[in-house]
Amino acid sequence: MKTLLDYRNEMLVTIRDHIIPFWLDNGIDEEYGGYLTSFDENGIYDGNGIKNIVTQSRMVWGLSYLLPFAKEEDKPKMKAAAHQGAEYLMNEFWDKEFGGFYWLLNRDGSIVDPAKLTYGEGFGVYALAQYAITYNSKKALEYAELGFDLIQKYAADNFRGGYYENIERSWQISPSGSYAGDRKSLDIHMHLLEAFTTLYQATGKEIHKRKLQECWYIIKTHMVNDEIGYGRNQFDLAFKSIPAINIMRTWNAERESNETIPTPTDTTSYGHNVELSWLGDLALTTIGERTDQDNDLLIKLLDFAMKYGYDHEYGGMYRDGLTSGKVLVTDKEWWQNWESLTGYLNGYCMTRNETYLNIYKDLWEFDKKYFMNYSVGESRQLLERTGKPLISNIGNPWKAIYHTGRAFAECITRLNALIDEE
C-alpha cells in the first residue's frame, strides 16, 4: 500500500523532472519576449503565437511560485525566465495611455484586442504580486498595486457590489449579450479572490485586506448556495442567477472542441466548486479570520462535487452539471481534475476525513495515468469519460503551467505537512 511519502515523491518527481523542465525548455519566446504556450501532443510548438494576458501572467506566476520545487540547476534559468516575462507584462501588455493590461497581443507584441477584462487584469495583479514576493521586485509590486487600483476605480460596482467583468480599452463597460457587459460570474470573482490574496500577502496593506474580505463576502452571499454547497455560474448585475451563455473572450467560447455549452439557468461547474473550496480556505487563512459558517461552506462545496461531479466508476471529475445534481458534460478536462487534487487533499487537511484523502489518491492515479503525457512533460487537455484522449495537445493560448504546476506545488506542501505530523 502506498504511503503519503510515496504520493509526495511521485508528485515531486513529476513537477521537478517534467512540468518545470518542459516549460523552461519550450515556453520562453527567445525572439520577442514573453511565452509560447501552444504545443501539440508531441510538445511541438504549433505556430499559434497569440499571447493572452491570462496565460502570460500565469507563466510569470508559475515561474515564481514554483521556484522551490525546481531542481537547483534549473533555478537560475527559472528566475531569468520569470524576469523577462514580468518585464514583458509591464512593458508590452501595459496600456501606457489608459492603464491596465491589454487582453491579447500577437507574438510580436502588436495589439490584437486591447480590452481590459477584469479576469485578465486580476491575473496581471496575481502574477506580479507573486513575482514580487519570490524575487523581491519593487517594480513588479508597484505595477501589481497599480493594477489593483485600476480595478477598484473602473471595474468595481459600487452600487450593487462585486465587479463588472467585461470592459473595453478605455474602461467603458462592454456591450450586453455575448460580450456580457450586463453579467457577473463566480469564475471571475473567485479569481479576483485569488489575486487579492496574493497581493495582500505581498503588501500587508489594509486596503488589500478589506477588498479581499469584501470579495469573499460577495461570493458567499450572492454566488453560492451555502445550504447545499454549489456555486452558480452566471448572474445579472444584481446577482440574480441567469442562464449561462457562451461569452466572448472566455475559455468556453474559444475552446477547441467548439461544443455548445448547455444553458439551463441552474448550472454549476464542479471544478470551480472544488477550486473555490481551497482558494477560500487560503483567503481566510491569509486574512486571519473565519467563521464556522465559512468552514461549513468550504466542506459543502467539496461534498456536492464529490457526490455529483466525481465519476465513481471511471475516476476523474466531470465538467458541468445542474445544481439539482444531474451531470450535463461527462468528459474530463485538465483544469478541473488538477485543481480537484488540491481541493480534496486540502479538505482532508481541514477535517481529517479519510474520504477526501481517498478521493485525492484516486484522482492522482487517474490524472497520472490518463492526463499526464510523461514522454513530453505536461498534461493533455481533454479526455472522454473513460480516459481516452479527445484533445491531446498540452498547451494553447489558455493552457500553460498554471493548473498543473499549482496542483503539484499545493499538494506537495500539504503532503509534507502531513508527513511531518506522522
Structural overview:
This protein is mainly alpha-helical and 422 residues long. The protein has one domain: Glycosyltransferase, CATH 1.50.10. The protein has a three-stranded antiparallel β-sheet. β14 and β15 form a beta hairpin. α2 runs parallel beside α4 and α9 crosses α11. The longest helix has 23 residues. The chain is globular and about 60 Å long. The two termini are 16 Å apart.
In short:
The protein is mostly helical and 422 residues long. Helices cover 53% and strands 9% of the residues.
Into which percentage range does the β-strand content fall? 5-15%
Query: Radius of gyration over alpha carbons?
Result: 20 Å
Could you estimate the helical fraction of the residues in percent? Answer: 40-55%
Order of strands across the biggest sheet?
Answer: 1-2-3
In CATH, the topology is named Glycosyltransferase
How confident overall, as mean pLDDT? 96
What is the overall shape? globular
First-last Cα distance: 16 Å
Q: SSE string, helix = H, strand = E?
A: HEHHEEHHEHHEEEHEHHEEEHHEEEEH
User: The biggest beta sheet, please?
Assistant: 3 strands, antiparallel
Number of domains: 1
Secondary structure tally, helices: 13
Number of strands: 15
Oligomer: single chain
CATH class descriptor: Mainly Alpha
* Structural class by helix and strand composition: mainly alpha
Give the name of the CATH architecture: Alpha/alpha barrel
Low-confidence stretches: none
